[in-house]
Amino acid sequence: MLVGTKPPCAADGETDGSGVAPPIAPLFRNSTHVVTARVGELRAALPVAQRGRITMAVAVAEDSNGVRTVLVATSEPRSYLRPGVTLRPGETMVGGTAHAEANIVAHVQANNLLVLEIGATRPVCVPCQDLIDPTGAKILTPLQPRLRT
User: Is 30 helix (H, G, I), strand (E, B) or coil?
Assistant: First the structure.
């Protein structure tokens, strides 16, 4: 689902003729805030008893035209959302059978998207870090430590 497009003149201060610069969509102002805030909301919406075993991930991805989307994934089978956990308008639920973060990486690769920033409701495990790293995405939430050998 398309969330917004870059206003062509907002970046360089031009206006649309009315003397007012077009607003910049929130995803372009601060996608870091979008991801971290949404991760916090999803974590709070998960039932307390499941917070330690269910992972939800949020990412901002961009297509080749610069159009950004918010992707949400869960570690739950069949993309099940627990009661009280809902998607916001414009968010895209990403299905899959792997970890939530891995499901997002698979989705962006299958759809020729670029994942810009990603976060999860639990610390990102090492295998997911290894999947995310080659994409160039910035992981915004805590990471599980790598074992020292």
Answer: coil
**How far apart (Å, rounded) are the C-alpha atoms in residues 62 and 54?**
26
Give the chain's domains with CATH numbers: 26-139 (3.40.140)
Which residues does 70 contact at the CB level (< 8 Å), separation at least 6? Answer: 3, 27, 34, 38, 58, 59, 60, 88, 90, 91, 92
First to last CA, the chain: 44
The model scores a pTM over 0.85: no
pLDDT tens sequence for the chain (149 residues): 334 433 333 333 334 455 554 445 666 678 999 999 999 999 999 999 999 999 999 999 999 999 999 999 999 999 999 999 999 999 999 999 999 999 999 999 999 999 999 999 999 999 999 999 999 999 999 999 998 87
Looking up tokens 């998607």 gives 87
